[in-house]
Amino acid sequence: MTDANFDKFIEETIYPELEPLEKKRQEKVNIFWIITVCIIVLDIILIVLIQSIFSLFFIGIISLIGIGFLRSGLFKSYDAEFSAHAIGNITKFIDKNLTYNRNAYISPNEYKASRLFLTSYDGYTGRDLVLGKLDKTEVKFSYLYTYYEEETEDSDGNKTTHRYTIFDGLFFIADFNKRFSGEVYLFPHGFRFFSPRKGTKKIPLENPNFNDIFDVYGSDPVVSMYAISTSLMDRLLNFKQKTGSKINMSLIDSTLYLAISGYKPFKVPIFDTVYNKEIYYGYLRQLKFASGIVDELNLNTRIWSK
Asked: 215 versus 196: which is more confidently predicted?
C-alpha cells in the first residue's frame, strides 16, 4: 500500500462522495459562528447592565454550555454522514471484508465476558465499531470508555461526585483459533485493578523480560504456558515497546480479548475542509494500527489449529 495508491483512493472515492457534504459543512459553520457571535454580544450587554463579577462567571459558564450544545446539535448529522463515507470507505480500503459503524461499539456482554475489568462501571460508552474477517481471523474492535463514580461529602455536608476511569482505549476481540480448557490472563506488571480471578494463580514464564512487563495468571500452568508461547511473548513485548500503551489480555473459550489504553475515537473535523488529505491519513493510521494487531500477534498463522 503506497501513498500514491491512497492518494488516488481519496481523490477517486472519498472526495466525490464528500463533495455534497462540503457545502453543508460550510453552511453549518456559518450558522454556528453567527449564533456564537450573537451569544457573545448578548453576554457583553448583560454583564455591562448587571455590573457584577458573579454575573460574569455565571453568564460565561451558561454561554459555554449553550455553545457546546449548539455545536453538537448542528453537526450531529454531518458527523454521521462524514464518518460513513470517509471512515467507512477507508475501512474497506484496508480490507473489503471489514465493515464500520460510527455509533456502535463492543457490547457490555462482550466486555464482561473478557473478565479483564471486574470493577463495576457506572458509565459505559464507545464508538467506531469495526468487524469482519482479516484473512483467516474473525475480528471486532472499537473505542471504549468505562468509568465508575464515587461520592464524597465534606464537613459542611456538601456532596461531590468524582469520576474514575476504568478503561479508555481500544477494545479488540479476535478468534484465537484454539480450544483449550481454562482461562489465561495477562496484565501490566502490578496492575492495580487486578484481583485474582477465582481458580487462577500467577504463572511466571521463562522470559524474565516478559515477567518484568506482564503478569500472567491462569487456571492451568501447562495450558497458560502453551497459550502464551515464546513466539507470542516476543510479539507482545515488541507490540508493547512499539506502542508504549498499557495492554491487558485474556484468552477465554478460544477468544482473545485485548484492551489497549490510549487509543482515541475518530475525530471528525468540522472547521476543516473535506479536501484535507491529512484527515484521511490519520484515519488510515488508526485503522491500520487496530487491524494490524492480527499480524502483530501472528493470529493468522494456524500454529494453534483447532
From this structure: 215
| H or E, element range at 40 | helix 15-50
For residues 54 and 267, the model is more confident at: 267
Contact (Cβ atoms closer than 8 angstroms) between residue 178 and residue 228: no
What's this model's pTM, rounded to 2 decimal places? 0.84
Count of CB atoms within 10 A of residue 141's CB? 24
Query: Is 134:156 a contact under the CB 8 Å cutoff?
Result: no
Between strands 214-218 and 183-188, the pairing is antiparallel
Binned at pLDDT 50, 70 and 90, residue 304 comes out as very low
Contact between 230 and 205 under an 8 Å Cβ cutoff? The reply is no
Distance CA 144, CA 248 (A): 14
Minimum mean pLDDT among 17-26, 155-164, 268-277: which range?
155-164
Give domain limits for the chain. 1-95, 103-265+276-305
Cβ-defined contacts of 191-195 (< 8 Å, 24+): 191/215, 191/248, 193/117, 193/118, 193/119, 193/166, 195/118
